[in-house]
Give the backbone structure.
Amino acid sequence: MRILVTGAAGFIGQMVVGALSARDSILLNGVERRIAAILATDIAEVALNDLAAHHRRVYPVPGELSSPQVLERITQDQPDLVIHLAAVVSGQAEADYDLGMEVNLRSTMDLINACRQMPKPPVFLFSSSVAVFSCVANDTISEDMLPAPRSSYGTQKLMGELLVRDATRKGFILGRSLRFPTISVRPGAPNKAASSFASGIIREPLAGQEAILPVGRDLRLHLASPDRALAYTLHAAGLAQSVIGADTTLTLPGVTVTVGTMIDTLARIAGPQVAARIKPAHDPAIEAIVASWPGQILTPRAEALGFEPDTDFADLVSAHMGRTAVE
Ligand SMILES: NC(=O)c1ccc[n+]([C@@H]2O[C@H](COP(=O)([O-])OP(=O)(O)OC[C@H]3O[C@@H](n4cnc5c(N)ncnc54)[C@H](O)[C@@H]3O)[C@@H](O)[C@H]2O)c1
């Protein structure tokens, strides 16, 4: 079978492409299938070519996802599995409304339309986010709560989920929208996500650098490790459409932790001198976005479908330290 990964040069994309390339087969829609080719597309051409050079069976397709050349190549390739990760993240989509609409909404519509041209509906994973939810003050909610995003990013992701649901109903795709928790600890440089600090306050101090903390210690976050994000993606591809049914959106489980506990955990594992590199600098714009996200989400449906969360936040820190020690 053939696989398409959009946003392949991004953080989750690189992990997914690396994991798929290392395997000969995966479970797709309930059936074990041999992987013949991985089409990887992104605007970041250099990173994409580098990815293809280091992994087998990866074919880079650089360019804007909505461009006719990229869409044409996708339609011709007829992937059996589409993993749609291309996006602009929350802070950027808030700062540049047009760009957010173009990438997060328009390219999702274009990709679904490309799938309509294919002889067989592909399994289609759409990367959504818990930012579709909003609450008054960082509350505990259930996965059944009606989404009402308070950011352009969350709104665009919610619209994408609805398109995936309808396209599945119409038989164009076998859709699954995954509401990812905030991923922590994300390696590499800070990004423009409003939640960037959720990785930065662990990653930067461990690398000997200062980290800015824009929110208060009491804020709670619903987090998952990079390894969980990858495992969730592969697990979602493997589920049979019959067990997902018409309700194609899945809110993924996470670990609930306060910012204060994150800092205390870092101090316990790496030492207080490391945690002392975190410098509070309140940013009301960031606090307003992340405080409208739920602090905890109860996810019985996803857990019953086999999505298993990390055990606790200390595991996320240790996993990051293990990864950076190997690099
Ligand atoms: N990382 C998280 O904490 C998190 C949480 C919830 C949801 N998500 C979602 O998961 C997906 C992947 O997240 P990530 O952290 O890897 O993001 P990322 O920013 O690292 O990767 C996104 C990729 O999309 C590419 N891209 C942007 N515009 C494009 C366009 N017009 N055409 C083609 N490619 C384009 C970028 O170059 C980038 O490589 C995104 O959809 C994101 O919204 C991530």
About this structure: The chain has two domains: 2-183+225-251, 197-221+255-296+307-326. The chain has a mean pLDDT of 95. The chain has 14 helices and 16 strands. The pocket of nicotinamide-adenine-dinucleotide is lined by residues 7, 9-13, 42-44, 64-65, 85-89, 103, 107, 127, 129, 180, 182-183, 191 (CB under 6 Å).
